[in-house]
Automatic annotation (TrEMBL):
Pfam families: Arginase (PF00491)
Keyword Hydrolase attached: yes
GO molecular function: arginase activity; manganese ion binding
Alphabetized InterPro entries for the sequence: Ureohydrolase, Ureohydrolase_dom_sf
Source organism of the structure: Virgisporangium aurantiacum
Keyword field contains Hydrolase: yes
SUPFAM superfamilies, sorted: Arginase/deacetylase
Protein name stated in the entry: Arginase
Gene Ontology CC: cytoplasm
Keywords linked to the UniProt accession: Hydrolase, Manganese, Metal-binding
Similarity section: Belongs to the arginase family.
Amino acid sequence: MTTILAPYHQDQRLAADDIPVDADVTVHPDLPDGSDGDVWGTLAGVCGAIADAVAPVVSAGGVPTVFSGDCLMTGGTVAGLQRAGLDPAVVWFDAHGDVHTLDTSTSGYLGGLALRLLTGAHPDRYADPIGLRPVPAERAVLVDARDLDPAEVGYLAGSATGHIQVTDVAADTVPSGPLVVHVDVDVIDAGEVPGLRFPAFGGPSAAAVLGACERLLATGRVAALTVACPWWPAKGDDERAVRTRLVTRLAGLAQTSATQ
């Protein structure tokens, strides 16, 4: 299976060892001159480059695993699958809802909009520039999301987007057809993952999250796996070692599934 690395957190290029994965392809977007400070323009460039890397892998029958520094990059993977002729649903593992809009966000942090952008919010800024067809809300399922703002609670109460727990993840609790499985590593209890930008305690274990992903992979319907690593630079060898073990386990999921 092909592992793709997009070493960006929003418009910030990450250090080479920030996401310790042995990638087959590292995305180097061709960003226009003067793009510094243009977050949306940089996002479009990075997501477009991810789509360029993903599409041929999927067309050849592969299941890519895409690592990046935040959840906003998942749109590039979905766009790549769409270019390859698939119409995927999304299973979104995250400690947070990521269903804000620019109007409801109180922090202004764009990662808090990631799933909502994928399902059609602000298409002129996100979906349209990368050639993404927004995923219908009913074709998205949010897993865990234990840390929700009031606006997110209100949106989910009336939205067709599903909301389930990690223990409930199964073939019949997610949408039909091909799937993009997205894992923000902060879905795992913050006690197991050091240095997260937005830690949330009281969550599932890494083993529980990996087990849920394995159940989905066992269906044969997973077309791509995306992993977001929104953490600060590692503080010391111990922290780096914990992250390396986690990333290695996540990178191995699709490979293990393919050999079963």
